[in-house]
Amino acid sequence: MSNIVIRKASREDCPRLMALVKGLAEYEKAPEEVTVSLSHFEESGFGDNPVWWAFVAEIDGWVCGFSLYYIRYSTWKGRRIYLEDIYVEPEMRGKGIGAMLFDAVMQEGKSGDFSGMMWQALDWNQPALDFYSKYGTRFDEEWVNCSIEFKDV
Amino acid sequence: MSNIVIRKASREDCPRLMALVKGLAEYEKAPEEVTVSLSHFEESGFGDNPVWWAFVAEIDGWVCGFSLYYIRYSTWKGRRIYLEDIYVEPEMRGKGIGAMLFDAVMQEGKSGDFSGMMWQALDWNQPALDFYSKYGTRFDEEWVNCSIEFKDV
């Protein structure tokens, strides 16, 4: 896999990233939950006030995976890097690309002013939980995600 | 309770807010988890690049509760307002102050460019879950919180 390139995502990657986000939502059994528009997605990442950043894995010009992150604040731990999504196309799994994308975000966090890295995994996604375990990840199952919707954006 | 004032937190509130954050961590049975320093907390909220904002409930000059929030990004739903903490001192509970603090954050979210509001509750905190249920909150228990620590800040 010597021709895999991990690089920062650019605005031009957004349509492809949106398609991969939808692929991830399908894997997570919630494709109808993706309601964000491409223009909002682009503007949020590459407008005047970016709120997310991403790495992409590219092979011969084809983006086959991504990891997307942003900054969170914990009143307990201070500034945290938050891994929102990590995804590799099914046919490219098992080649270490997920680890490269995960490591890229972790390096970003370690080199910045962050106390740690956080993310969420689905409790039935054993391959993901096994993967994260290798990093000495702490798992905490006693929290319930709560949400109220206002409008689609 | 006519003399309760809900207002935006200022830098001068930070020492008191830190004390309330610790009160909340004790209630959540994790007081040792609060490792952030006061200077980092102040700088993160009132420095050049604020990453959190808060409301405080004040009664006769005494801050007896707060709600603290920041902006998150969901690749599925777009920009979200995230309620990081909400807390009212034990002796002031049952007077509707929590609802006032919760409503203040929700209004902030509704008046801004946010698709919705998100937060987490402990699965054993039935009073909190009951409170949130009144708002038509969607609860999702299938996610596991994951974290890796880098350093204290």
Keywords:
homodimer, 153 residues, alpha+beta, Aminopeptidase, globular
Spatial strand arrangement across the major sheet of chain A = 1-2-3-4-5
Tell me the greatest interface. A-B, 64 and 64 residues
The low-pLDDT segments of chain A are none
Q: Please, how many domains of chain A?
A: 1
CATH class of chain A: Alpha Beta
Instruction: Determine the mean pLDDT of chain A.
Output: 93
Distance between the termini of chain A: 38 Å
Helix coverage percent of residues of chain A?
Answer: 25-40%
Shape of chain A: globular
% residues in beta strands of chain A: 25-35%
Level-2 CATH architecture of chain A: 3-Layer(aba) Sandwich
Helix/strand structural class of chain A:
alpha+beta
> What is the CATH topology descriptor of chain A?
Aminopeptidase
Order of helices and strands of chain A: EHHEEEHEHEE
Short synopsis of the structure:
With 153 residues, chain A is α+β, with helices and mostly antiparallel strands. Helix content of chain A is 30%, strand content 35%.
Structure explained in plain terms:
Two copies of one chain form a homodimer. Chain A has 153 residues and is α+β, with helices and mostly antiparallel strands. The first copy, chain A, has one domain: Gcn5-related N-acetyltransferase (GNAT) (Aminopeptidase). Helices cover 30% and strands 35% of the residues of chain A. The first copy, chain A, has four helices and seven strands; from the N terminus they run E-H-H-E-E-E-H-E-H-E-E. Chain A has a five-stranded mixed sheet with strand order 1-2-3-4-5, sandwiched between helices. Chain A is globular and about 40 Å long. The model of chain A has no long low-confidence stretch (mean pLDDT 93). Chains A and B meet through helix 1, helix 2, strand 3, strand 4 and helix 3 of A and helix 1, helix 2, strand 3, strand 4 and helix 3 of B. Strand 6 (138-140) of chain A pairs antiparallel with strand 7 of chain B.
